[in-house]
Amino acid sequence: ILLLDSLLQETSISTMECLIGMQFDDFVMVAADQTNARSIMVMKNDQNKFFNLSDRLVMAVSGESGDTNQFAEYIAKNIALYKMRNGYELSPSAAANFTRRNLADYLRSRTPYQVNPLIAGFDTETGKAELYFMDYLAAMIKTEYACHGYGGFFSTSIMDRHFRKDMTRQQAYSLMVECVKEVQKRLVLNLPNFGVVVVDKDGIHNMETINPEVIAKAA
Fold this sequence. Notes:
Layout: H1 2-10, H2 13-16, E1 19-23, E2 27-33, E3 36-38, E4 41-44, E5 50-54, E6 57-63, H3 65-86, H4 92-107, E7 115-123, E8 128-134, E9 140-142, E10 145-148, H5 152-162, H6 169-186, E11 194-200, E12 203-210, H7 212-218
Antiparallel strand pairs: 1-2, 1-10, 2-11, 3-4, 5-6, 6-7, 7-8, 8-9, 11-12
Helix pairs in contact: 5-6, 6-7
């Protein structure tokens, strides 16, 4: 137990978590594990790792529990303040760049945030969904699909093979189930529950949580 504890202490908390995002023609789907663990102990299996930044913009975060909550709430409140001052919301691209800039500034301060976000949104001006991958070093890229954590070692290859931009929502959910299934099968860590969120022109929607029962039905 002491050896396992020392190994987990050396391993970043965020790598033990898993975020999966996919961007399609008219919506974005993001899944986040719901496990909150510390060292060798699991605190809870129903942690919500999604933060709504605006009506059509959501951030999924992994990392240190205090950092993720404080940073996401700080970004959400500043985006809300921008809307109050200017009368319109930031686009997903602008919000992602604002988030990246703040993460970069804090990285160069004495209080850096250990946060790895996925930002998903729908741009009403262009009519397109967008997904942004960002890490705690403030590196950012706009992408069609992305993962955070060790789970990405197994799920990225599945998306490489089966991802299509024109998938329906049900097809996308089925692909997400396959990704989570592989993570649960191959990864030594126990991540039983994954929350799933969809962002489209109508806003942010919660889908059925992917758990062992859902995976068993899909099989």
